[in-house]
Fold:
Amino acid sequence: MALTGVIDDHMLQHYRELLDKEDAAFDELEHAYEEGDRCLFEADLTEWTVAAQRRLAYLKRLGVELA
Structure:
């Protein structure tokens, strides 16, 4: 996999934003788990899953494939 020309400041900034959104969603998921709120947990799990999928889709569009 050649990433020459793919990794630049814009790419890193966008990736960092995706990571931050995923991290924030996981924090909410963790809080819902600790509080024992099943409905909120399931909603937060969906948000975290979507955030992770967006990050992985972005990497795929850049040509980065994870096994």
Remarks:
- The CA atoms of residues 24 and 40 lie 15 Å apart.
- The chain has a mean pLDDT of 92.
